[in-house]
Amino acid sequence: MTKMSTMEENLYDYEADVLVVGSGAAGFSAAISASLSGASVILFEGNQHVGGTTGLSGGTAWVPNNSSMRSQGVDDPKDHALEYLARLAAPQYFSSEHPTLGLPQNEFDLLATFYDEGADVIDALTEVGALDLVAEVSDTDHYIQFPDYGGHLPENKAPRGRHLAPRPGSGFMIQQLKRGAASKDVTVLLEHRVHDTILNEADEVVGLEIRAGHRTVIAAARRGVIFASGGFGQNGELLRRHIPGRVFGSCATPHAQGDFLRIANRLGASFGQMSGAWWKQIVVEPALRSPSPPSLWMPFGDSMVQVDRTGRRVVNEKAPYHDRGQVHLHYSATSRDFPNTLLFMIWDQVVADSPLDVPFRPPVPLPNEQLDYVIEAPDLEALSEAIDQRLTQLGDTIGDVRLSDDFAQNLHDTVNRFNNFAAEGVDHDFQRGSTMMELAWNLMERDNTPNPTMAPLSDNGPYYASIIGAGVLDTNGGPLINTEAQILGFDLQPIVGLYGAGNCVATPAGAAYWGPGTTIGLALTYGFIAGRNAAREPEKSLTP
């Protein structure tokens, strides 16, 4: 951080009431909110284009009690909604009888604020033309429906309707927000990567030090600075330092390098959720070559399993991606390692021959498509040998992971056991196909199967496999915020003039991923709160 006393007023390259860092959902929401509160706003984006990770995502928002769901006759009372929020945010502490549901007061208040303000934020952004979203309450003609990921839990009384998607024909969410910001005279500057904050003599945050190409420029904030700069999902060093297990890739923007961690640390911020992320599974071999490999949002196919290095299933293959991704992080106190670092997705010819061309298909190629990360063999024993050979070829790029000596025999036993479950229609090991979300997201179905997510693998080959590992959409740990979206210092008091929202701060969601669009719903809500409150701050001294 730089002290304002070392600078002169005429050295400012930019000046506004509120400065915003990042142009994803949180940043645009903050900028529009601050403008609606009467502030002049400049938004800085390090990339060559706006959008951040929001622009790379599905671009939908999960918001409880939104007006679109209410207009369609779906009730979402606060007490029930908070039970669902808290149940997944901190399951290890959750207690339905406790006044704050087992959570510390500050964590409970963050969830309550999300419920109280989220719907109003969507309405406010809609009213000024910055959003046009609609809730999906019932089954639609889309190829996939979007109930809550925990729609089957008893605490969830409104499993449909919290998911908001752009109204058909209205454009992607980030396009809507960009138009909304332009209509509110928000200045957007690209390729301006924030390097540090600037403090005045009262230790208030009053500006930013920014790298614009080869230049360093200075921006002054008369009222407040808001960080919405994303997590550290693309920073391998920080991932290794903070995340348990191994992360093979991310779908975050390349600038998700965790810049705000360094900046906030210098300011004495308190941190939380540093081992947290929005999890998924990815295909490992392309991840070794590219920072954004194919993701397994929902593993494709019914006659398909995922097994560990011993040839045994360890996960419900149709569970939400956030839950499946974390299976790879399991630490075994017996073997003193992470036995699920790699899993192996195995499918038969029926799945391979499916003509469905859908975004959730990878790693299964389309018929007649050749992908070098797919392993093929005429039978399960030969497939086991081929997988082991591939691991040997990959060498130390994947660590010391090899198949067990009894992998082939265990795989035969696993397939037989799975086939019996499929014929019965009940997965007695992992309850595959037992939830609303799994059934809604299941794409490949056959006639007359008792469980549409499961079908017996063929008795004869060929069989196919791909190596699967953990990935992140982005991380979600960082400086702590309060319900005003203020960044908190070591003493848990606000750092004056500094706000945060989105993946660069410790998420109010904790361990939860409540439904599709959770990340963006929180980002829009707390970004809007940050913008409103930053705009209302008293003007600060910009000179010594």
Automatic annotation (TrEMBL):
One Pfam family in the UniProt entry? FAD_binding_2
Q: Tell me which Gene Ontology terms the entry assigns under biological process.
A: steroid metabolic process
Q: Which UniProt keywords apply?
A: FAD, Flavoprotein, Oxidoreductase
Determine if Flavoprotein is one of this entry's keywords: yes
Report which residue ranges the record marks as coiled coil: none
Q: Which Gene3D superfamilies match?
A: FAD/NAD(P)-binding domain (3.50.50.60), Succinate dehydrogenase/fumarate reductase flavoprotein, catalytic domain (3.90.700.10)
Cofactor(s), by name: FAD
Where is the FAD-dependent oxidoreductase 2 FAD-binding domain positioned along the sequence?
17-520
Q: Which InterPro entries match?
A: FAD-dep_OxRdtase_2_FAD-bd, FAD-oxidoreductase_2, FAD/NAD-bd_sf, Succ_DH/fumarate_Rdtase_cat_sf
What is a GO molecular function of this protein?
A: oxidoreductase activity
Protein name, as recorded = FAD-dependent oxidoreductase 2 FAD-binding domain-containing protein
